[in-house]
Amino acid sequence: MSAVLIVDDTPDCSDPLARLLRRRGHTAVCAPGGMEALALLAGFRPDVIVLDLMMPVMDGVSFLQALRGDPERKDIRVVVFSGCRDGLPAARLAALGVGEIFLKGSVDFSRLLEVLA
Fold first, then answer.
1. Under CATH, which number does the domain 3-116 receive?
2. pLDDT of residue 99
């Protein structure tokens, strides 16, 4: 099973996803923001990161730039799970190695679980 880091400042989104992943046998760790996630990565190497884009202090794109600039962690797979509908920087995310983008509120959880496996 996968180890998943969920980076989202909204516990109403991150906590249910973490519970769902744990019930499916995955390890799921939550970080409330980009800075906290970078600190967690010092001692935890997830297989995949589920990343919100709109967060205070360090947004998702800034987190991705920091992650991709770290030679030891730059290859960690990232899936975006965000409520950002207008102005979604899809090209920028693709350039930063994001393969999948899911929009909160209209996500197909079976597809998300498939991608995270």
1. 3.40.50.2300
2. 82
